[in-house]
Amino acid sequence: MRVLGVDPGLTRLGIAVVDGGAGRTVRAVAVDVIRTPVDDDLAVRLLKVADGVEEWLDEHRPEVVAIERVFSQHNVRTAMGTAQAAGVVALSAARRGLPVMFHTPSEVKAAVTGSGRADKAQITVMVTKILGLTTAPKPADAADALALAICHLWRAPMRDRMAQAEARAAEIARTHRARLAAAAKATRIRTVTK
Questions:
Q1: Which residues form the active site (predicted)?
Q2: Cα 70 from chain centroid?
Q3: Residue 146 in contact with residue 103, Cβ under 8 Å?
């Protein structure tokens, strides 16, 4: 499976493509940062993000897009820009019919480092080791994008199994309710006919 990982941001948007193989095998395909000038109007910056993401989607043809879920931040303006950039990425993926998965920062940290409280330096070190890179990806936004793709590749099979189990449980519950209703109806009919 090929995953486009995105660490959303308006000034710097980390973007990476990782291929997943059997088990936990992962391979980095590409990584970069899409930058927009802070002096540009918001609409122009979002357009530049969209154009950059579209180029990546055209070039790398991912099967799924994994985006970091915007979590509460102290700076509301930064949070808004991050959320808007994430929305542009999700829209670009949706236009192509690609599934979009959102992962919380703690999910990504836990998947890659084993701790949901890891710092950016720990994430960079682990991403470098996991992918067998000769140099650490920089800036941190690039490492975070790689971590998002890895997180998705490692968690997607578990999510799929959970969804299948939930669907089976729901079907069993429906069948059970139908049997109970049929038994209750049969009991009522026998009672009336006596």
A1: 7, 68, 141
A2: 11
A3: no
C-beta atoms surrounding 118 within 10 Å: 20
Instruction: Write the pLDDT tens digit of every residue in 29-59.
Output: 999 999 999 999 999 999 999 999 999 999 9
Bind-site residues for Mg(2+): 7, 68, 141
Structure tokens belonging to residue 52: 């950059």
Q: In one letter, which amino acid is 101? A: M
HEC string for the chain:
CEEEEEECCCCEEEEEEEEECCCCCEEEEEEEEEECCCCCCHHHHHHHHHHHHHHHHHHHCCCEEEEECCCCCCCHHHHHHHHHHHHHHHHHHHHCCCCEEEECHHHHHHHHHCCCCCCHHHHHHHHHHHHCCCCCCCCHHHHHHHHHHHHHHHHHHHHHHHHHHHHHHHHHHHHHHHHHHHHHHHHHHHHHHC
Domains of the chain plus CATH, in order, are 2-163 (3.30.420.10)
- Looking at per-residue confidence, does 181 or 123 come out higher? 123
- Binding site: residue ranges? 7, 68, 141
Show which residues are catalytic. 7, 68, 141
Q: Report pLDDT digits (tens) over 51-100.
A: 999 999 999 999 999 999 987 667 787 889 999 999 999 999 999 999 99
